[in-house]
Structure formats: C-alpha cells, structure tokens
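Task: sequence in, structure out. Protein: Transcriptional regulator, MarR family.
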Amino acid sequence: MEHYTPKNFLLTDSVGFALTKARNLVASEMDVALKDLDITSPQMGILLSIRLGNATTPFELSKLLGIDTGLMTRLLDKLEDKGLVERSRSVDDRRVVNLTLTKEGQAIAAQIPQIAPKVLNARLRKFTKAEFEELRRLLNKFIGE
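Result:
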C-alpha cells in the first residue's frame, strides 16, 4: 500500500519528519542529562555498545548505531582524547581495530543506566504500558526487525 502520493505529501506530515523530530528531541534532552559526565548522546551509544559487547570495532559500531564511518572516527577520536576508549590493532588481522573501554570509560558507562531511563521515561510519561509496547512494536516493524 502506498501511503504517500505526490498530491498528499507534506514534509511536516511525513513519518520521516516526525521520526527525525522525535530523535532530535530525545538526543537534545539526553545531551543535557549527560552533561555532568562530559559525553554526548552519540558517545553514550558507543560507550554502552562497547561495554555490553554489542560491538568491538568501529565498523560494528557504525552498523549497530547507524552512524557513517567518518562520523564514527571523529566520535572515537573524542572519546580517545577524553581517555574513555582505547584502540588496538587485531593481532590476527592488522586491518581490524579493536575497541575497549578504559577504566574511566567503564566508570562513565556504568553511570549511564542511572541517567538515560529518566530522560526516556520523562518523554514517555503520557504513554500507557500498552501504548509503549505498541510504539516499540511499530518502530521495530518500521525499521524491519
């Protein structure tokens, strides 16, 4: 089924516009909440992904988080400059860069679960449990999972 046509398409009424606006709202609120940790919401995603073992290379992080490799490199440079992430070449394949959290990176990542849920729960406060589950279901369907 085609939901949009050239006649009925309006940018501000599109799903893409709403998703982008929602993403930007959450990212902005998360950035404010993470300020004391001196990290941003994209950096939070990287730290948590490494901490949980969801990704251990820049390429895996790029795929998981939907961030292009150029931006990923810049984000990792900043995290490395802050002493939160270390890069090392794989002994098996020198083309592969492995990522690990430093001791300070582990400490910062361990604090995120105390902060992020508050931000998300504030944005979701008007949703019932059923609406929240339906939102998650629909977003997963939209992204193809």
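The two ends are 19 Å apart (CA to CA).
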